[in-house]
Structure formats: structure tokens, C-alpha cells
């Protein structure tokens, strides 16, 4: 049996182990260790490479970005910044068609710029936006679907944990990946807004429980307008954080790690100033930061070990040769790869897909002359769609569990996210065809 055949079999076993419920980190470590042992017939070499990877895998200053951005996101979540952002967006957009839906997208877009985690956005806005939308005549399932659909913006609009993980795996600049995600993120948010307005006009009963009365209520609501001063006060914290972190990062004043540190400190000041952080909550935030960060860093060590096994097996070079011989070309490879990611998104979580696929596909894409930052944005877009597709759909399940409404089933929320998936597919195709959408600011 050739090393190439062994490599393909090991990948198949890896996917099977993950589907059977084994933690992705343990599966990666096991498959990589066994693979090196079998291919080189030397268990001592497998142990030495494991030791080397564990020692040097995350021994870089750059990896401090992960706990810092996680800490910033958690501090922002507990300080009720998301609630205030939605309140202002609701006030500004309430007279627009599907105003509360558009407000949810707008608030998610702003919230994503300081959290970087879709699950956090889904949990926050399920509590804030869904009750408000339902109270004003929107179908509960559509309200939940809007939150789930727009929550994926957190994975693309920088700073994003998925962009950080991809940058580490593909060995490209994390700051560059953040800049590359700006235009596609705004395209996605703009597409969601246009879709919500269009769906409400063309199929109002998909959106509203009673379209006629809800439209009248939208125009004639007996609501005291929010004073301008209060709107500014509610928006100041998140605007300052966005300017502080992203402004400093894009201007070159901060490195990604420094931006994470400054952002975490700024988020701490916001939480303290709003008196939303007592000793118990601070302990919970620090504990969650540690748990999430250690989990991600362990996954990255496992992925590095897995990448070394793939290199020993010669798998990336062999697949690159097959792609070249097939006549796919760079664009054909990108679409074929995106299709595989979409299929994997139905059965695996986002991080697992990146850890399994990027070490294989990034060297191939680079060999075909594809810009790795463009390739990364396509990857993250395709992975994001998996957050909404059944049967896994982690964002949908997060919204469903947080909502805890027996009248709203998971199936109804999946159906309500279909228009969002259509927009994401369109943006994915546009970004794949037009690399300038990624590289314009680079």
C-alpha cells in the first residue's frame, strides 16, 4: 500500500471518528500519530514529532490574539452592548419595510465588529431581538431565523476567530485576513438587508403574522421617540471599541495581538463603567476565556501535527497533481473545494472543517496561483453556510435552545434561514469570481 493511499484512508478514518463523536483534537492527534508511525514504520519518530509539535506549535506571540479577542467578546456580551445597539437600530429603522429585521442585521453587523463569534451573537440577539420582533407582529419562526441568519456575520466581519484560525493554519497574516474580510462582510450584510425588504414586499405572510395590521402598526406606533442624546450614549461604547481596535489595526498602529489587548482592556472599562461586571461575572468571564482559548490552542497544536503527517504522506502534492491533470484550473478548484466544504458543513462544525481541510487545500491553492487570503475568505464563507444548514446548523440550534419556545420548532427556524443561505451562496460566488472584493485594501 502506497503512502498516498494510506493518507487518503487516514483522512476517511478521521472524518468517521469525528462523526462518531470523538473530539476533533483527539481525533487529529490519533490519526497523525498513527499515520506517521505507519508511513515511516517508526514509533519513535511519531513520539518525537508529537513532542516537537506540542513544544513549538503555539510558542509564538501571535497566538495571544486568541485569548485576548475571546476575552473582549465575552466582556462585550456581559455589558449589554448588544441590547443597546439593537435598541438604537430599532429606533432608526422602525419605519422601514421589515424595519426590525433590518435592525437585527444592522445590530449584528456592529456587534460582530467587536466579538468575532457567531454563537455569541446568536445567543445575545435571540434574547433581545426575537421578543421585540414577535411583539410587533413578526412570525416567531421568522424572527428566530433572522437572528440565526444574521449571526453568521460574526465569523466574517473582523475580528473573527475563524479568520484567526485560518490565518494560523494557512500561515498568512491575521491582520491581512481581517482587512480582507471587510468588503465581503459588508456585501453579506447589504445582501441580507435587500433580501429582507424584498421578501417582506413579495411574500409578507412569510414574515408577518398579520401583514395589514402590522404595516399599520409600523407606521402609527404609539412610541415615544428615543432622544438623540440617549442614542449617542448607547452607541458610544461600541463605536469607541470599533475605532480603537479596528482603526488601530488597519492604520498599522497596532499589531493583531496588541489590538486584542487594547480591545480587551477597552471592553473591561466599558463593562465596569456600565456596572454590569461584578466579581461573580468576572470570574465566569475569565473561566470561559480560559476554556475557549485552551480548546482552540489545543486544536491548533493538533492541526499542526496533522499537517506534518500529511506532508510526510505527500498528500497535498499528490492532490495538486491530480487537480492539475484534471484540467480544473484555479477557479474550478475553488468551486470544487467550496462544494466539498458545503457538504461537510452539513455534518461537521466550522472549526473541524477548517482543521481537516485547510492543511490539505491551502498548499494546493497556493501551487495553482490562488491568493491565500482570497482563498481564506471563500473558505470562511462556505463554512459559514454550514452554520445554517441541517442537520448540524449550530447557529440554528443555539437560537432554538436560547429561545426555548415550544411553539417554534427547529425545522421552522431552518426554513426561515433559507433566504439567508441563498444570499450567502450568491456572495460566495461573487467573491470567488471577483478576487478584488478581498484584495482591494491589501
From TrEMBL:
Part of the tripartite ATP-independent periplasmic (TRAP) transport system. It comes from Salipiger bermudensis (strain DSM 26914 / JCM 13377 / KCTC 12554 / HTCC2601) (Pelagibaca bermudensis). The complex comprises the extracytoplasmic solute receptor protein and the two transmembrane proteins. It comes from the Bacteria. Keywords: Cell inner membrane, Cell membrane, Membrane, Transmembrane, Transmembrane helix, Transport. It is found in: Cell inner membrane. This is TRAP transporter large permease protein. The lineage of its organism: Bacteria, Pseudomonadati, Pseudomonadota, Alphaproteobacteria, Rhodobacterales. Residues 12-435 form the TRAP C4-dicarboxylate transport system permease DctM subunit domain.
Amino acid at each position: 500500500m502506497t503512502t498516498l493511499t494510506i493518507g487518503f484512508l487516514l483522512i476517511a478514518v478521521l472524518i468517521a471518528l469525528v462523526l462518531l463523536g470523538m473530539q476533533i483534537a483527539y481525533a487529529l492527534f490519533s490519526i497523525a500519530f498513527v499515520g506517521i508511525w505507519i508511513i515511516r514504520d517508526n514509533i519513535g519518530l511519531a513520539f518525537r514529532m508529537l513532542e516537537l509539535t506540542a513544544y513549538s506549535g503555539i510558542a509564538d506571540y501571535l497566538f495571544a490574539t486568541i485569548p485576548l479577542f475571546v476575552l473582549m467578546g465575552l466582556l462585550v456580551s456581559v455589558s449589554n452592548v448588544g441590547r443597546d445597539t439593537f435598541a438604537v437600530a430599532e429606533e432608526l429603522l422602525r419605519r422601514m419595510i421589515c424595519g426590525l429585521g433590518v435592525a437585527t442585521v444592522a445590530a449584528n453587523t456592529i456587534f460582530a465588529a467587536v466579538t468575532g463569534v457567531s454563537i455569541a451573537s446568536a445567543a445575545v440577539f435571540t434574547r433581545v431581538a426575537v421578543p421585540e420582533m414577535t411583539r410587533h407582529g413578526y412570525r416567531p419562526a421568522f424572527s428566530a431565523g433572522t437572528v440565526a441568519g444574521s449571526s453568521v456575520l460574526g465569523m466574517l466581519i473582523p475580528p473573527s476567530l475563524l479568520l484567526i484560525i485560518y490565518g494560523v493554519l494557512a500561515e498568512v497574516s491575521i491582520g491581512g485576513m481581517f482587512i480582507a474580510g471587510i468588503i465581503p462582510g459588508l456585501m453579506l450584510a447589504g445582501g441580507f438587508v435587500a433580501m429582507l425588504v424584498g421578501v417582506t414586499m413579495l411574500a409578507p405572510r412569510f414574515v408577518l403574522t398579520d401583514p395589514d395590521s402590522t404595516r399599520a402598526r409600523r407606521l402609527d406606533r404609539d412610541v415615544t421617540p428615543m432622544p438623540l442624546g440617549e442614542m449617542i450614549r448607547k452607541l458610544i461604547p461600541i463605536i469607541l471599541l470599533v475605532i480603537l481596535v479596528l482603526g488601530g489595526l488597519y492604520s498599522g498602529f497596532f499589531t493583531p495581538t496588541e489590538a486584542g489587548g487594547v480591545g480587551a482592556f477597552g471592553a473591561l472599562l466599558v463593562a465596569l463603567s456600565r456596572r454590569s461586571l461584578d466579581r461573580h461575572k468576572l470570574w465566569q468571564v475569565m473561566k470561559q476565556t480560559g476554556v475557549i482559548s485552551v480548546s482552540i490552542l489545543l486544536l491548533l497544536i493538533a492541526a499542526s501535527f496533522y499537517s506534518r503527517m500529511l506532508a510526510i504522506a505527500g498528500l497535498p502534492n499528490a492532490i495538486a497533481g491530480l487537480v492539475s491533470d484534471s484540467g480544473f484550473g484555479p477557479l474550478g478548484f475553488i468551486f470544487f473545494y467550496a462544494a466539498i466544504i458545503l457538504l461537510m458543513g452539513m455534518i461537521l462544525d466550522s472549526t473541524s472543517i477548517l482543521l481537516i481541510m485547510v492543511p490539505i487545500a491551502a498548499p494546493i491553492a497556493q501551487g495553482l496561483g490562488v491568493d491565500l487570503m482570497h482563498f481564506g475568505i471563500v473558505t470562511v464563507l462556505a463554512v459559514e453556510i454550514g452554520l445554517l444548514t441541517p442537520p448540524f446548523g449550530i447557529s440554528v440550534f443555539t437560537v432554538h435552545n436560547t429561545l426555548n419556545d415550544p411553539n417554534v420548532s427547529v425545522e421552522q427556524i431552518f426554513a426561515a434561514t433559507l433566504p439567508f443561505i441563498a444570499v450567502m451562496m450568491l456572495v460566495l460566488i461573487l467573491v470567488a469570481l471577483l478576487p478584488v472584493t478581498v484584495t482591494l485594501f491589501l
